[in-house]
Amino acid sequence: MGDVLSGIVETEEDINRRHNEKMVRRKAVRDRMLATKTEERGLLIVHTGKGKGKSTAAFGTVLRCLGHGMRVGIVQFVKGVWQTGERVALERFGDLVTCRAMGEGFTWDTQDRARDIVAARRAWEAAKEMISDPAYRLVLLDELSIVLRYDYLPLGEVVASLKAKPRDLHVIVTGRNARPELIEAADLVTEMTLVKHPFRSGVKAQPGIEF
User: Where are the domains of the chain?
Assistant: First the structure.
């Protein structure tokens, strides 16, 4: 069986041979590229954008690090009042993970700017302790971009601290509207794009999906 092209019948064997030749060339190019990538160091990673999945992707990386036996620290700047599935699940990893839920909800819930600033500062102090602790290989600062957006923390101090993190430490920052200074300092930035969301159709936040 095959396609008829210019009067020539191409067999499955022909198609498979061309595919194999193409993959050999592609592998050679990829191998040459990978040979130039020799540096190994901790990354500053930013997940931002209006789409869902910023924290979800970050917790996926947390799980991957835990699978390698790496110690992980997590500070949640906003979702402290929520009973989230990830916090319950991570309790099973014992001493490998420290999760500190220090936020008091979104600012439109608290409606108390002064209290929000105090909570943000307390969470940032905890984050700095984790960043400076050589026992951690990954620190997740969940929703840090939210408090930076509202100027609850001094942007310059935060960015300077993240730039000065230990060389081998990975740090992930999540939250929409990441500040340009944070994006500039980061090694890896992913923007989640909103295409479609069930909330717009009247579907509420659900366990296992949103929290």
Answer: 4-35, 44-201
Q: Is residue 201 very low, low, confident or very high in pLDDT (cuts 50, 70, 90)? A: confident
DSSP of the chain: ---EETTEEPPHHHHHHHHHHHHHHHHHHHHHHHHT-------EEEEESSSS-HHHHHHHHHHHHHHTT--EEEEESSGGGS--HHHHHHGGGGGGEEEEE---S-HHHH--HHHHHHHHHHHHHHHHHHHH-TT-SEEEEETHHHHHHTTSS-HHHHHHHHHTS-TT-EEEEE-SS--HHHHHH-SEEEEPPPS--GGGGTPPP-TTTT-
May I ask the CATH class of domain 44-201?
alpha beta
User: Residue 166 CA to chain centroid, in angstroms?
Assistant: 19
- The pLDDT-based confidence of 6 (bands split at 50, 70, 90) is low
